[in-house]
Amino acid sequence: MPKDSTAVIGEIENPILRQKVATERDRMRAERALDLAHEELKNAEAAAARLPAVEAELATVRRMLDRPVKLDATLKAPAQAKPSVKAPTALGTIALAVSAEIVRRLDGTDPADFIKQVRPGDEWRLVRRYAQKAATDPAYTNVAGWAQELTWTGLGPDFVDRAPSAVIPQLLGAGAREMNFRGHNAMSYPRRLRDTLPAAWKEEGTEIPVKAGMFGSVTLNRYSLGVIATLSEEIRRVSRPQIVDVVQQGIIDDSARALDGFFLDANTPVAGVRPAGILNGATSQVSAGNDVDSVQVDLKWLLGHLIGIRARRPVFIINPLRVASLSLTTAPGTGTRPYQAELERGTLAGVPLVIADNAPADQVIAMDADSLFMGIDIPEIDMSNQAMLVMSDDPANDSGGTPVRSLFQTWEVALRFVQPASWGFGRPDTVATLTSVDW
Fold it and tell me: How far is 99 from 118, CA to CA, in rounded Å?
């Protein structure tokens, strides 16, 4: 029968029993400690047994690290950049082809050899290919199919880059619209006239007003400027790289100067011959003077014209002499130069300047470049060393008696240059000119 709680508590509190319990607890702890010691001893013996093998493995690794190691590595060659290729320009290709043909006719040098000699290097291969196509006999630049990619680009970009002081190249860069004839005798470009379709307020339920749109067009007829030059045997003595530069710069300078002269005159159009100069029928006014107040009056008049025609891309065409003189103009009493800083930025009264050597020295021309349409096609060049030439610089008005020259007999080559060109405006009253300018 189980003891009651009072008896159990009494036994636990008995000192003798308590001593027995403590003794038994110490014995069990000692046995547990002994078992753990035996287990650790076993593990130590196993580790001691593996120690020689571990030491051997470490020695092997140490020997491998200490001895030199020879590695054979193969690296791929770095990719080589492809050589740059010179993009063929219309003007550069023509000059190279013309030079090749001149040399061929004078001393029989094959055009391909000449082109290769003056434009060596892989970067010129595209230029050489087009130039060789152009240098075909008897005519090359006007033979369809020789390099239509170049033909359609025209000479505008070349003139812009290489004849920066001429008027027409700068106008092309200032926003004039370039047209290409592409073999046609005329090109027409439609254009909407401004302020012809304004909307109007309407009351609910009422009719919307109907208005007729007014459209116009610009038609450029294909005109041509031409000249023939004779070249003697002396041209063969020019070093071969230089002959290309001579021909190219001759085309640029002569074409730019001639075109600017006709472009800026006041002549009327002649059917089948030439377009009108841009000053034909232009609004004009005499300059007020050369002091600061007078210059302000002149500028207000020019700006009034541009504002009146709502110019989208206004420009002033001005001679560099006027720019230099105006930049030195001083304000009375202060000695300051009110126009110098702006002129250095290429503007005057906020309007971009076309500073051109061929511009009239006593005029300042204001116009909207956006209304100007220009067609400057690639020139047609041919040559002959057997032709008979009438040696006259004005054949149409020659009264007779002009000598005839045999190129075969004089051992010369004649170079014929024909430049198709035309221009026109999309709207009337686009140009105004300030005359008798003495700024």
Answer: 10
Question: Is 415 in contact with 383 (CB distance < 8 Å)?
Answer: yes
Angle, helix 111-118 to helix 240-263, in steps of 10 degrees:
90
Please give the pLDDT value at position 152.
43
Return d(Cα 121, Cα 104) in angstroms, integer.
22
Decide if 189 contacts 179 (C-beta within 8 A): yes
CA 121/CA 241 separation, integer angstroms:
14
Please report the DSSP string for 195-233 in residue order.
TSS------TTSPPP-----EEEEEEE-EEEEEEEEE-G
Q: What is the pLDDT of residues 257-306, one digit of tens each?
A: 888 899 999 999 998 889 999 999 999 999 999 899 999 999 999 999 99
CA distance 217 to 31: 118
Quick count: other Cβ atoms within 10 Å of Cβ 258? 15
Handedness of CA 160, 166, 167, 168 (dihedral sign): negative
Q: Would the pLDDT of 435 be above 80?
A: yes
Give the DSSP H/E element, type plus range, for residue 170: helix 167-173
Distance, in Å, from the CA atom of 301 to the CA atom of 349, rounded to the nearest integer, reads: 11
pLDDT at 163: 60
> Other CB atoms closer than 10 Å to residue 362's CB: what's the count?
14
Beta strands 314-318 and 283-286 are unpaired
Q: Looking at 126-272, which runs of residues are DSSP E strands?
A: 177-179, 186-192, 215-221, 223-231
C-alpha 93/C-alpha 101 separation (Å) is: 12
pLDDT at 365: 96
Q: How confident is the model at residue 153 (pLDDT cuts 50, 70, 90)?
A: very low
Q: Which fold has domain 155-196+205-439?
A: hypothetical protein PF0899 fold (3.30.2320)
Position 114 scores a pLDDT of 86
pLDDT tens string 94-113: 778 878 877 877 777 888 88
Report the run of H or E that residue 347 belongs to, with start and end.
Answer: strand 347-348
Q: Where are the domains of the chain?
A: 84-153, 155-196+205-439
Residue 418, pLDDT > 70, answer: yes
Which amino acid appears at position 216 of this protein? G
Q: What pLDDT shows up at residue 31? A: 79
